[in-house]
Amino acid sequence: MGRKNYLFCWSELGAEQLGILQSLMVTCRLQGVNPYHYLVDVLQRVALHPAKDVLDLTPRVWKEKFADKKLTSDLDKMG
Fold first, then answer.
1. Which residues of the chain have pLDDT under 70?
2. What 8-state DSSP symbol labels residue 49?
3. Buried b (16+ CB within 10 A) or exposed e, 21-50
4. How do residues 14-24 score in pLDDT, each as one tens digit?
5. What is the dihedral of CA 49, 54, 56, 59, to 10 degrees?
6. From its phi and psi, is residue 34 left (phi > 0), alpha (psi between -120 and 50) or beta?
7. Domain residue ranges of the chain, discontinuous segments joined by +
8. Quick one: how far is CA 4 from the chain centroid?
9. Nearest to residue 43, comparing CAs of 74, 18, 79, 68?
């Protein structure tokens, strides 16, 4: 799936970052986590979360610790 998608990354770094993002999304699906809810929460939480506890933000651990009290986007409140 990725090979043709990587043609549009424009650089090796872009392709590597796309691969990381795709891997993260697949990991969310395997863990039964909604990727949208996960990303919205983690992108808000990362600034407040201690760097030494970064493993808490992986999809598997996030599901156990934060899924019940996830942060939401302001856009979700509008609709």
1. 1-8, 79
2. S
3. eeeebeebeebebeeebbbbbbeeeeeeee
4. 888 888 999 99
5. 110
6. beta
7. 2-78
8. 23
9. 74
